[in-house]
Amino acid sequence: MSTETVISVRDLWKVFGHKADRVPRSDELKALTRRELIERTGCTAAVREVSFDVAPGEVFVVMGLSGSGKSTLVRCLTRLVEPTAGQVVFEGEDILGAGKRRLRDLRRHKFSMVFQNFGLLPYRQVIDNVAYGLEIRGASKAERLRRAREVIDLVGLEGYEHSYPDQLSGGMQQRVGLARALAVDPDVLYFDEPFSALDPLIRRDMQNEVIRLHREVGKTMVFITHDLNEALRLGDRILIMRDGRQVQCGTGDELVGAPADDYVRDFVRDVPRASVLTLRWVMRQPRPDDVLDGPELGPEVVIRDAVRTVLAADRPVKVVRDGTLLGVVTAEEILTVVTDVEAVA
Amino acid sequence: MATTTVGLQRTWRRPGKPVLVAAVLLAWVLIWVPARGVHTLGLSPADLTPLHHWLNDVNDTVGANRDSSPFFLYFFNEIRAAVDSLVTFLQDLIAQPSYGRPVPVLGWLGVVAVVAYVSWVFAGWKPALLAAAGFVFFGLQGLWEESMDTLALTLGAVVISLLIGIPLGIWAGLSDRFHKLVTPVLDFMQTMPTFVYLAPLTLLFLIGPASATIATLIYAMPPAIRLTAHGIRSVPRSAVEASESLGATGRQKLTGVLLPLSKGTIVLGVNQTIMAALSMVTIAALIDAPGLGKTVIKALQTLDVGTAFNAGLAIVVMAVVLDRVTTAAGNRVRQTGRAARFRRPLLAVFGVVAAVCAYLSHTYYWAAEFPDDVTIGGTLAKSADSVALWAQQDLSTATEAIKNAITYALLNPLEALLVESPWWLVGAVAVLLAALLGTVRSVITTAACVALLIGTGLWQDSMTTLAMTIVATAMVMLLGVAVGVWMGRNRFADRIIRPVLDAGQTMPAFVYLVPFLALFSATRFTAIVAAVVFAAPVAIKIVADGVRAIPAATAESATAAGSSAWQMITKVQLPMARPSLTLAANQGLIYVLSMVVVGGLVGAGALGYDVVAGFSQGQLYGKGLAAGAAIVLLGIMLDRIARASSPSKGSN
Amino acid sequence: MKLLRLTATAAVTALALTACGGEKIGETPVAGSSSGAAACGTFNLAVNPWVGYEANAAVIAYVAEKNLGCTVTKKDLKEEIAWQGFGTGEVDAIVENWGHDDLKKKYIDEQKTAVAAGETGNKGVIGWYVPPWMAAQYPDITDWNNLNKYAAQFKTSESGDKGQLLDGDPSFVTNDEALVKNLKLNYKVVYAGSEAALITAFRQAEAKKTPLIGYFYEPQWFLAELKLVKVSLPKYETGCDADAAKVACDYPEYVLDKIVSKKFADANGPAYKLVKAFTWTNDDQNVVAKYIAEDKLSADDAAKKWVEANPDKVKAWLAQ
Ligand SMILES: Nc1ncnc2c1ncn2[C@@H]1O[C@H](COP(=O)(O)OP(=O)(O)OP(=O)(O)O)[C@@H](O)[C@H]1O
Ligand SMILES: [Mg+2]
């Protein structure tokens, strides 16, 4: 494995039910839809043949509707759920082959997880909840508390060290969950719909918090959500799942600009395209009659940010990367996207 | 319900379950008329089947080999010695003259002080006051020593139950396989009548505290196992996962997450274990267990209702005290603020006071032996006597009429149907009902139960008992719904009624047998009334809790829609409390079945009498054992059919 | 804090001060341990659950303790379990045994853990009884030949269209179903299930003047309260009850006896000698039973009262 990937997943399967391991081995069973499989064998295929790579420092988002297998997938990565077939390689090491002790070590030092329902221990104060992971790996009390204070400050919970979880709001409880995951200083953070239980304003707050943390500590993150806007805000790349299968994997603008099928298209329909798509997706090849001395913009510029420039210019705007002309954009292309958004809004 | 046509059409196409069930029952009656009285498999009380003889022989062999078998020498004797020394130690501590002194180590003042202190530490002020008052009351009743003997025995049984039960419960909570394995064993332990194993126990563990303790803990341990397992199983998945994701070992997960988060439920298990142990006090007295049970049994020999009542009241008070203290300890909230700041010094101060009281009670007669010139026991007994006498003389005409009405209108027809039907007809109906309401599993279980019931050789007695059980359970549910809904809707009613229910549950049946016999004669109906007194409280409590647990928002929206109280009850509260109703029926049934033997003492005949006679006469031992097994089988069969028909399993 | 500590000290001192009055434990020597104790030792006496038995046990225990210096341990046990206790060494003596040929065969003949220790002098009678008011009003009811005439009167909710014959305590052997059948009586046996149930039934029947016929026995303390009248069944002759299914005669008169464990008998200590010598009449037992059941004396006080009134009888037991 190259050093460019932290996590590498190949042909991962998770089937729940009796004699589940026969499913990935049989081509006939593999081909069935989820419903057919349940009728035939009584097994539920939660994750089917999923493959992807995550780069260091990347925020990798997995999204899909409820029941599409996201939680199962992320749990397979840490073996909280035992995968049925496939390969999960973490920093060059095949996790599925790791023994019990090794797995425990990995969990204690390499990755940690933030849960939708927080999973806090109600009988412990905030500080002891945060220190829980360190306690498990046997850190001394003084060190635990020092580190816990540090991360409590980091997530902005100063002053609440000695509160109990049920005395905190949902958002604050999830900050505790976040702090607990950060306290062990893992290489990778897994988030399973961490903000779904929070109301929209707090959710936005927490998303900003994650963005800030990502900037400050630069951890690799795998983030599960069913909210496309959240995915687009946080994700460097997004994997879309449906009924256990991966449908498409790419950057936000790739999904919006070139949906792989109707399912994805449906998904991204309500997205404000102008704020996701970049010029790359709307530029056209210059025509012979185009005047090519207008302003220049890069292909990765988001349309919303280019509107002013394009509309102000009286000639086509050139899309240029490294001095090469990739194409041009005029008011016409911009307006199709922007008015489309207007119509939806 | 609004779209009647749709509903009608659906019924038209495929008859609904209620219709099919009704059809089966109708068919039963129609076949019963011509087939009445054949293949009823009757067996008169003095007759035995080969199975019964064989069981007798097994019992004799065990007895004969007692002194030579290594199993006895090294296994049972060791257990006996260990249990004996624990209970004897507790008795020496609080109940019996010990260590060459004419009094126990701790006298009444010391016990009251220590109990109050411990209750205060773990449960708070109110329970501590209640505990102190309750214990002083034992002294005032003139039953100090008896109460302490009972307490020592109960504590011994409870300690051992918990030492074994909680680890087993944890195991059952962690392993599905063990859970499946242990559940039927627990059902068995709870429904098999104690009378059946009392005599063999004294063979295995000799006469003395050990046998009494073991008899008690067989009945008392199941709740500890069940509730511990339940608690572990209901710990939120997310907390467990979180700890796993941080790399916790199995032990870390157990001590850090599972046990702390199921503490409340485990304490409830402890509480239920204590209650169950106390309900065995009188039965254990039949094998020389010391304490209040002996007083009750002795009083029953001379039909001395007052004395029996006085001792029974002490058992009730002990149950209420232990219940309130453990419940409060389980529900305890965190101490914060001022209270927390004063707690430490208070702990020390009260600790010293308790220690001084203990010392005094160890040293001085006045603090060791409860003064017997301030007794109110005699007065209590006399008033109970006169109330009982009044009831017998002035009420018995009315109660006789009630008894006759229910017996002729309900019990006799049902019994005729069950007892006079050929066995294959009843068996077929049971299996059909299981098939209609449940799954393949319930069909298999039911069929197996029917076959085994026939195997016990006590089919007809089982049917007689079944008829009484059904009537009693129906009455329990009627009371459960009526009183339970009332209590659930009205806090004040709850406050008043709850202690009465506690008394009904813990007052030994032997105390009220005599008045009941006077009111209703030695009849099946008396047995039913005794069963209802014991079983209704638990059903009522469950229904009340279920009604109260309905979210306020639901009730509010119904009120906002202009529901009358009646609509509120029938349209909202009862349907929403349905899982509770199912649970109440299940528990009501189990409690009714556990009174079958007591029924045998007051004229119920059938299985209850078989068990009692088996306990009393050596040559009927095998038959009594078979009758005990039949009671267990009836319980399993009714429970499975009832559970299959409950909506919580998602019948659609 | 200070305040707390102060109050605590005050409380403790107060307690300690008030306590200093009163008699200290250990100042008076523990009673007991007279010279005879060594010779007699511990005597494990089974107490079966009926008052007549308790009367026997009370008197024997009282004499054993007071006159022989034994340490008597009374054990409240049902018969079957008491017999078992012979084998396990936990019971030394049973002092009122009603027949129980099966148990005698098992423990005396087969296991050889028990031996007979003579009669108590009491005679046990089992039979069918009616309340006194019935006997007075229907004098011919005491003859079984007339029972069918009255069957209708005895009908209850439990007996269907027949008369009810209330049977009793499951501890007693009964032939009543066979008797009803073989004497062609129009009755159904209903099992009351306990002595308490029987006594309550007779009490209510007399008080309310309602008809009742049932199984009962003497000696029994309740007969002192209410003199039930026995119905005469066909006379008992030896062997007429050999086949349980064909019984058509009255119950035999039981000679109540004493059973002791083999070990106890072989040791031949003073307690064993007392048990063996013990004998008294039905009237004697009824007196003590009345003390216990009606006057509510403790077993010990009841025994004391009787022993003080009958010194010569006690002397006769001890002389042997
Ligand atoms: N332990 C299990 N046993 C059997 N089936 C399971 C189990 N866990 C999940 N499944 C099934 O696997 C499928 C995927 O579940 P999963 O929880 O991964 O979905 P999800 O995408 O996380 O949904 P949500 O957004 O609701 O959390 C579902 O059909 C679910 O019923
Ligand atoms: Mg999920």
TrEMBL record, chain A:
| Gene Ontology cellular component terms for the protein in this record | membrane
Among Gene3D superfamilies, the record links this protein to: P-loop containing nucleotide triphosphate hydrolases
Q: Which GO terms describe its molecular function?
A: ATP binding; ATP hydrolysis activity
Q: Which GO terms describe its biological process?
A: glycine betaine transport; response to osmotic stress
Instruction: Enumerate the spans annotated as ABC transporter domain.
Output: 32-268
Entries under InterPro entries matching the protein: AAA+_ATPase, ABC_osmolyte_uptake_ATP-bind, ABC_transporter-like_ATP-bd, ABC_transporter-like_CS, Gly-betaine_transp_ATP-bd, P-loop_NTPase
The record's listing under CDD domains reads: ABC_Pro_Gly_Betaine (cd03294)
Classification via Pfam families = ABC_tran
Q: What does the UniProt keyword field contain?
A: ATP-binding, CBS domain, Nucleotide-binding, Transport
Q: Which domain of life is it from?
A: Bacteria
The protein's matches in NCBIfam families, at most eight in alphabetical order, are given as: proV (TIGR01186)
> What does the sequence similarity comment in the record state about its family?
Belongs to the ABC transporter superfamily.
PANTHER family given in the database record: GLYCINE BETAINE/PROLINE BETAINE TRANSPORT SYSTEM ATP-BINDING PROTEIN PROV, GLYCINE BETAINE_PROLINE BETAINE TRANSPORT SYSTEM ATP-BINDING PROTEIN PROV
Q: What is this protein called?
A: Glycine betaine/proline transport system ATP-binding protein
Originating species: Actinoplanes xinjiangensis
Upper taxonomic lineage: Bacteria, Bacillati, Actinomycetota, Actinomycetes, Micromonosporales
Automatic annotation (TrEMBL), chain B:
Locate the transmembrane regions by residue number.
Answer: 18-35, 151-174, 194-220, 266-287, 307-325, 346-367, 423-454, 466-489, 509-540, 588-608, 620-638
Q: Can you say where in the cell this protein is located?
A: Cell membrane; Membrane
Keywords (A to Z) from UniProt: Cell membrane, Membrane, Transmembrane, Transmembrane helix, Transport
Which is one GO molecular function term here? amine transmembrane transporter activity
Q: What biological-process GO terms show up in the record?
A: choline transport; glycine betaine transport
A Pfam family of the record is BPD_transp_1
Q: How does it sit in the membrane?
A: Multi-pass membrane protein
Instruction: Name the domain of life.
Output: Bacteria
Has the keyword Metal-binding been applied to this entry? no
Entry GO terms, CC: ATP-binding cassette (ABC) transporter complex
**The ABC transmembrane type-1 domain covers which part of the protein?**
147-326, 462-642
User: Can you name this protein?
Assistant: Glycine betaine/proline transport system permease protein
Which organism is this entry from? Answer: Actinoplanes xinjiangensis
Automatic annotation (TrEMBL), chain C:
Question: Any idea where the ABC-type glycine betaine transport system substrate-binding domain is?
Answer: 44-308
Q: Which CDD domains match?
A: PBP2_BCP_2
Q: Which UniProt keyword terms apply here?
A: Signal
At the top level, the lineage of the source is: Bacteria
Q: What is this protein called?
A: Glycine betaine/proline transport system substrate-binding protein
Per the record, its GO cellular-component terms are: ATP-binding cassette (ABC) transporter complex
What molecular function does GO assign, one term? transmembrane transporter activity
Q: Name one Pfam family in it.
A: OpuAC
Write the signal peptide boundaries. Answer: 1-21
InterPro entries, per the entry: ABC_Gly_betaine_transp_sub-bd
